[in-house]
Every structure is written in structure tokens, then in C-alpha cells.
Design goal:
The structure is a single chain. The chain is of the alpha/beta class and 235 residues long. It has 8 helices and 9 strands. The strands form 2 sheets. Strands 1, 2, 3, 4, 7, 8 and 9 form a 7-stranded mixed sheet that branches. α5 links the parallel β5 and β6. The protein is elongated.
Length: 235
Amino acid sequence: MALTPAGEAFVPAARATLRAAELARDAVEVVKGRLHGRITVGTVQGVWAGLHRALAALRAEHPGVVVRLRQAAVAEIRQALRDGTVDLAVVALDRQQQRGLTTRLLSREDMVLVASPRRVLPGATPGGRVDLADVAQLPSVDFSPGWAIRHAVDRAFRAAGADHAATFEVNDVVAAAELVRKDLGVCIMPRSIADRFPDLGQHTFRRHTPSWKIMVVRPPGEAPPAVAALLNHIT
């Protein structure tokens, strides 16, 4: 089944109408001293553990608010923000992807190379620092195209002038760690994710360190009451 051209034109207006009805109901509840409603929060795997604390605080303060978490690739979350199916997101976006959205920086994090303790890394210093050019020669575990981590890693390899090809592509951090644990490849990931796997070795980079910026993102304009309440806890 597929929408007709008329259906494609109808969907955005229909969504906006339903959303306006929800906002009207929420406004009445706020006047009554109650905060209800539903929030759809977009995110990608591995992004900012502080989101869970913010959700817990929102739940304790406003138990009537229902939160739906939507996990997807960055491009999909960005489009969902634009068409109104996601209210806000905690993601990593580059400058071009931020256009037309309201953003606030939460944190910046460098990435590390994760490897099996058995893996011998070419060119590694006694302190464990490596070059991306040397890493490019090793079998690698990469995240799927469209992931924010993959985007940052590919950008770093291009900046280093190193050709890089994935040996394995995964869409789950646990699967990536398991492949590394079996010494089937090395993986570049944010340090906060790497710290979840203490049995794996971490190595920093001499130059062109991949990094990402975590930010809270939402459509422009005034935030609905439930969204504003969550933003207060996030920021």
C-alpha cells in the first residue's frame, strides 16, 4: 500500500491538527494544576546517559506524562523532528544537520579505539596512543551508515587522509563489543560507551581524534508544557 499524492499532501496537515488538539487538552490540564500528555523523544544508541536521569526526574515530578522513546538513525530522527512525529531529541548532529532546528549543546566527547587485549596494534606508543592511518590497516567493526558514531569516524579518517573500509557492520553496541572481544576486529566508539566493557583495551589517538557533540534538539517555537518540563530536567 502507498499513499496517493493527495494523501501525501494530507498527512502533514492531519498530524498538525491532531497535535493542536493534544496541545489544547494539555493547556487545560496545566490550568488545573496537572500535567499530562505524551512526549516522543528521539535518540540513537549510546547517546548521553544523562537522558535516563532526566526521564526519571520527569516521572517523579509529573507521573501523568507518558514518554515514548524512538531510537533511529540520525537522518530519520532529524526528519521526524521536522514533520512533528518527534517532539525533541538527544542526538549528535553536525552543523548542517542542525539547520531549521533549535539546539542546545549538552556535552562533547572524544572517541577511543577499543581492542581485544590480545590484539597487537601497529605503531602504538607505550602509553597506548595510535594513529588512524595504522588503525585503517586493521580489521574493523563499524556501526551502520547513518549512525552518528559512524559519521564522526568516517569524517576523522578523511581528515587523516586514511582509506578505511569496514570488515563488520553492526547496529548494536553490545554486538560490536562481542566481535572485538573475539578479536575479530577493532572498533572506534565514544569513551562513555567503551567504559561499559572494562575487559576490552582502550587506546587514544595522536591526531584527528573522532568526537561527537551531544545536544538536545527540537523544532523551533514554544515548547508544549510536557516538553518544556522534560527540557528543564535535561538542561
